[in-house]
């Protein structure tokens, strides 16, 4: 397989694309485990990372969404597999999936500053989640991203962070 994909980095992209397709599985437990596995990834191409945030298919360096560094992917495996998995994950009907998708967003943020900035928009939306566990994980994820040094909060997000923190502190008082 190493010759087919061109090396370890390409193999990791291939693994991520497979995990991304599993993140769309009908079974909740499979989606949870797929996001948990994605959180453990240590390297991946930025193109695959960015594609996981965007539902719109992003053109790669080679001009094809079905290749990695010029090598053809198997027919059922392309960058399209990663398209928008986090947008779907944070909107999943089950709060367990939303929680682990949030955690995974933060874990992958340390791999790319551009990814971290785009992930921040999804995380800000999660601050309004109906479930307290998801909101807590979102705050933990933002804290972890700041610890990694990859959180650059934009002014438009500061208002939301302050409101949520105040609400959280008030809830602790009662």
UniProtKB/TrEMBL annotation:
Domain of life: Eukaryota
Gene3D superfamilies: Leucine-rich Repeat Variant
GO CC entries: endosome
Domain (Nuclear condensin complex subunit 3 C-terminal): residue spans on this chain: 88-155
InterPro entries: ARM-like, ARM-type_fold, Cnd3_C
A Gene Ontology BP annotation from the UniProt entry: intercellular transport
UniProt family annotation: Belongs to the CND3 (condensin subunit 3) family.
Protein name (Swiss-Prot/TrEMBL): Nuclear condensin complex subunit 3 C-terminal domain-containing protein
Organism (species): Triticum urartu (Red wild einkorn)
Lineage, uppermost ranks: Eukaryota, Viridiplantae, Streptophyta, Embryophyta, Tracheophyta
């Amino acid at each position: 397989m190493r010759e087919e994909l061109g090396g370890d980095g390409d193999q990791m992209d291939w693994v991520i694309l497979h995990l991304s397709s599993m993140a769309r599985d009908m079974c909740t437990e499979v989606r949870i485990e797929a996001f948990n596995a994605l959180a453990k990834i240590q390297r991946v191409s930025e193109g695959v990372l960015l594609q996981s945030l965007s539902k719109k298919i992003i053109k790669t360096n080679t001009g094809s969404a079905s290749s990695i560094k010029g090598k053809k992917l198997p027919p059922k495996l392309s960058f399209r597999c990663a398209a928008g998995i986090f947008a779907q994950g944070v909107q999943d009907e089950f709060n367990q999936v939303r929680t682990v998708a949030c955690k995974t967003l933060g874990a992958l943020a340390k791999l790319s500053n551009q990814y971290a900035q785009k992930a921040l928009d999804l995380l800000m939306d999660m601050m309004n989640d109906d479930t307290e566990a998801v909101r807590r994980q979102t705050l933990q994820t933002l804290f972890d991203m700041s610890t990694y040094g990859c959180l650059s909060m934009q002014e438009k997000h500061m208002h939301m962070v302050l409101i949520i923190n105040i609400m959280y502190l008030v809830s602790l008082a009662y």
